[in-house]
Amino acid sequence: MGTRIQIEYRSGGGGAVGWSEFVKRPADGYTVAGLVIPHIVIQPLALDDPGYQTEEIRAAAWTVAAPGALMVANDSPFQTLEDFVNAAKENPGGSTVGGVATFSGSDLSTGPVRLAGGDRGHLCSRDGGAAPLISDLLGGHIDAAFWRPVTAVRNSDRVRTLAIAGDDGSRACPTFPPSPSSATT
User: Fold this and answer.
1) Please, is 106 exposed, middle or buried when counting C-beta atoms within 10 Å of its C-beta (0-12, 13-18, 19+)?
2) Per-residue pLDDT, 9
3) Which of the following CATH numbers is that of domain 69-184: 3.40.190.10, 3.90.1150.10, 3.40.50.300, 3.40.50.720?
4) Half-sphere exposure of 170 (CA within 13 A, CB side)
5) Which residues of the chain have pLDDT under 50?
6) Lower CB count within 10 Å: N or C terminus of the chain?
7) pLDDT of residue 35
8) What is d(CA 41, CA 164) in angstroms, rounded to the nearest whole number?
């Protein structure tokens, strides 16, 4: 691009930390931020003060669609999404699913799967992204994790992907099954 670019990564709060700093910067046409849907919409609606309002952020382009992947450890008794939902029906409130932040894509995406089985088990939010989430999963601290398909691909020797969110799955991960609408209704 013929110019220097300075990148600042601000982790925390499912993006809220970075976006709250972003909206305080001058609208100079040079400062940009990466946005994540549904986070930038849901957080201001659901939280008292995430540090920003959706209206303060204007999207210039959408570059990525990243559906979530529901993963379990390879030694998990859950072989399929149906197994996971049936276990939730048999033991409501008994499952723990890890994600990256409350009111994030992982939080919102696990809800319908857990509720399909009558399970009101909670989402265990983890700061720091995939590394602590996969550690919790492999260490047996959570039953499943919901995060990006790329994490499932990178850890395919250690995790089993039960489903990709949505009816179409992921073109980047065509061998992983999509989450059928009937499982979440």
Assistant:
1) buried
2) 86
3) 3.40.190.10
4) 23
5) 181-185
6) N
7) 86
8) 22
